[in-house]
Amino acid sequence: MNIAGLLGIISGLSVVTFVISSTSKNAKVFMDPHGVVIVLGGTLTVALLCFPFSRLFRAVKIVAGKLLGRGEYDYSDMIDVIVNAAQVYRTNPKSALEGIPDTAHPFFKEGMQMLVEYGFNADDLDNILQNSIDGKKKRDMDEVKVWHTISRFPPAFGLLGATVGMIALLQTLGEPGAQDRVGPAMATALVATFYGLTFANLVFIPISEKIHEVAAQDHVMRNLIKEGIHLIQEKRHPLLISEYLKSFLDPKDRVSVGNIESGGKNGKMAA
To answer: Distances in Å between the alpha carbon of 77 and those of 86, 103, 226?
Structure first.
């Protein structure tokens, strides 16, 4: 569970609730359905014009998993898994798959399967792994583009809703008692702008940024795995593999990687 994502959702709802309850004598004015319909309906309409329905469905489907799924990738743990596999592969290549934990990254499992079971040479293996990385990156960027595009429209439709409300207000200014209705009518007209800014800045933009961040972390992880599999195939010493893969990490994170000479993080590696 991504605690930060959950706290972000709770914080966003709390901010909106506080703003509505503390800045208005009558909170019911924010319940006006016209603003929500104009903002969300207009945004959905434009999204359907910009993207195929299947792509929109896929983008919506992955949101919950990436917002509330895993937190940051544990690169250090993945390096330990790679080093353990390298230790086994040097002595008994056919059994290298057996020691890979179920929680390991699927890309590592696929790569090791191509290495151990299919016996691909270095060039073919590199081409396949790189194509897989490039394809995954493109799919991730497509998802980011969907949400980035969607996030641009709610403020515009919020302004449209305010404009429509102001037009309706101005049409009644010549009627008796119109001056008493100006304030409430303007407040209602601006509700659409409020929803447009809220949905853009508290929903769609954060989703876009979160998906981009998860995609960037996954790209680093897959490149780390690819390099690790090449080093395993070359039967390099696990200590060299560990030190090489640590270069992918920030200096502060490198100390958490298991030390081979001391038996590794889980005590499974030997010198």
So the answer is: 14, 10, 15
Q: Which residue has the tokens 């993207």?
A: 51
| Distance (Å, whole) CA 254 – CA 256 | 5
SS (H, E, C) 161-180: HHHHHHHHHHHCCCCCCHHH
Say if residues 157 and 42 touch (Cβ distance below 8 Å): yes
Summarize pLDDT for 45-78 with one digit per residue, the tens: 999 999 998 888 888 888 777 766 665 678 889 9
The amino acid occupying position 31 is M
> Cβ–Cβ contacts within 10 Å for residue 150, how many?
24
pTM over 0.85: no
Task: Give yes or no for a contact between 225 and 66, defined as CB atoms under 8 angstroms apart.
Answer: no
Pair of tokens at residue 158:
């919020």
Q: Is 95 exposed, middle or buried (0-12, 13-18, 19+ CB in 10 A)?
A: exposed
Q: How far apart are the first and last CA of the chain?
A: 35
Residue appearing with tokens 């990436």: 66
